[in-house]
Specification:
Layout lengths: L4 H10 L7 E4 L2 H11 L3 E5 L12 E4 L2 H11 L3 E2 L2 E2 L3 E5 L3 E12 L4 E7 L6 H7 L4 E6 L7 H10 L4 H20 L2 E12 L4 E3 L3 E4 L21 H8 L3 E4 L4 E5 L2 H13 L6 E4 L6 H11 L7 E8 L4 H14 L6 E7 L2 H8 L5 E3 L2 H12 L3
Parallel strand pairs: 14-16, 16-17, 17-18
Antiparallel strand pairs: 1-6, 2-3, 2-6, 4-5, 7-8, 7-10, 8-9, 10-11, 10-12, 13-15
The structure holds guanosine-5'-diphosphate and manganese (II) ion (MN).
Manganese (II) ion (MN) binds next to loops.
């Protein structure tokens, strides 16, 4: 889950990170009021779940409340990479002398969290990463050791930070690491971390992504979840308790077990088809779950056929077959369905399906070929 800059800043502030004073506004008038309260030059910032807002015109400086009102009027409603701006953060403008980058993410290949520090922060850090990766100091963290003072000194030295920044960066990195761990983040970064004209460090931007699988541990973040972010069919599927991910093709895929479903996606793709979704109905799937799964897959109007791939272990083939028959009996389904059943009680299951409108397949490959042929028939 992504959260907005102002929400991330609230979290960082709780961890003692200095942030510019400011507040979120939903109308130009409100933005002017906030600018009035703050006094002096403010920065008006689009709050959308995407980076590169600066380059997209979503960040503007305003010297007076009137300018803040105009800036907000321009930014609110703006489309930034497909997201419509509904809120702006109005905050005291930082007197920027230099911009640094600090961030933590998970390096899956290394099976470690990685801390990154760069003196070349600001809007082009992605380019720096590609064109001058040596400008980003990196360190993999041992989870038992965490982030120690000597790590911090080493990073600041490797990143060639000036003395003023080296002196002050410790608390920022420690807070970043603590937030990363406490909130089960997949990414936490401050870019830019600003060195001001009077030699102080301040977090001018903040970004936090939280691992969705850990959200149950962070009920307090539920208020930050936004409908706009989630695909409507995915949202509905999650409400129904299904593990569903929407894709861009036209063949609905339903299977039991995440590994089997992922393999099915690959095999269908290899046979020339385009999967419309990932849907894992889990073990011991009963008729009700099968019906729910089919109904969910068909919410996607691109779906022209469904491939059921069931490997019977705990899940019994005859149970799934009964579920399918019940589903096609009670639902009005007008797309072809190919079924591959194997494992526990597969023979009994296939016998039950005989004479129905479902197309049986003996193997995953055969099933994939059959559904691709059926979907591409017309
Ligand atoms: P992003 O482009 O979405 O990452 O948004 P940021 O919040 O990082 O802002 C992008 C750039 O706008 C920064 O790197 C700064 O150069 C500039 N900027 C942001 N806030 C301020 C501010 O308070 N004062 C000044 N002068 N520039 C700012
Ligand atoms: Mn930024």
């Amino acid at each position: 889950m992504k959260i907005h800059e102002y929400q991330a800043k609230e979290i960082f502030a709780k961890y003692g990170v200095p942030i510019p004073s400011g507040r979120v506004a939903m109308t130009p008038d409100e933005a002017a009021t906030v600018a009035q309260e703050i006094g002096g030059t403010v920065v008006v910032k689009a709050q959308v779940h995407v980076g590169g807002r600066g380059k997209a015109g979503g960040i503007k400086l305003a010297k007076t409340p009137e300018e803040a009102r105009d800036a907000a009027a321009q930014i609110l409603g703006m489309d930034i990479k497909g997201l419509i701006v509904q809120e702006v953060l109005v905050e005291q403008a930082a007197d920027i002398k230099e911009e640094y980058y600090i961030g933590i993410t998970t390096d899956r290949a290394a099976r470690r969290n990685i801390v990154m520090v760069s003196a070349a922060g600001g809007i082009d850090i992605e380019e720096v990463a590609v064109e001058a990766p040596e400008k980003i100091a990196k360190l993999h963290l041992d989870p038992a050791l965490g982030l120690q003072d000597f790590h911090i000194r080493g990073l600041a030295y490797a990143a060639k930070l000036p003395a003023a920044a080296t002196k002050g960066i410790g608390p920022f990195l420690k807070a970043l690491y603590k937030v990363y761990v406490d909130y089960d983040c997949s990414l936490a970064e401050i870019n830019p971390l600003v060195l001001t004209g009077d030699g102080k460090l301040i977090a001018a931007d903040a970004k936090i992504n939280i691992d969705d699988n850990a959200l149950f541990r962070h009920k307090e973040l539920a208020q930050f979840q936004e409908a706009q972010e989630e695909d409507p069919i995915e949202a509905e599927a999650h409400k129904r308790g299904l593990t569903y991910v929407r894709l861009e093709g036209d063949i609905g895929i339903i299977g039991n077990g995440a590994g089997l479903v992922m393999t099915t996606l690959d095999v269908v793709q290899r046979e020339g088809g385009r999967p419309a979704n990932f849907l894992d109905i889990g073990g011991g799937a009963k008729a009700e779950v099968v019906t729910k799964a089919i109904d969910t897959v068909l919410l996607d109007k691109n779906v022209k056929g469904i491939f059921f791939n069931i490997f019977g272990g705990i899940t019994r083939g005859d149970e799934v077959a009964k579920g399918m028959l019940e589903a096609i009996g009670t639902m009005n389904i007008n797309v072809p369905i190919v079924v591959r059943l194997t494992g526990t009680r597969a023979k009994e299951g296939l016998a039950l399906l005989e004479g129905s409108s479902l197309t049986p397949a003996a193997t995953m490959q055969e099933g994939a070929q059959k559904i691709v042929a059926l979907v591409n028939k017309d």
